[in-house]
Amino acid sequence: MEHRRLRAGTPITPQELEELSDEQLARLVPKAYREYFPGKDFCTDGSFYLHDGSAWSLFKGGFVDD
What we know:
Layout: H1 14-19, H2 22-26, E1 47-49, E2 55-57, E3 62-63
């Protein structure tokens, strides 16, 4: 994988999801939501759910419903 700068809101591919560590993935999540990031093992289909029921997609780089 090419090394690129990981920034909040940057979409990734499913392959990148597998290759990145939990710490690297957390950098893709905006600071306001990082406390809710459960780690890669709990990101079903590249998404994780916040307490309000919304889902953040690492593949999309934003909320699933946006």
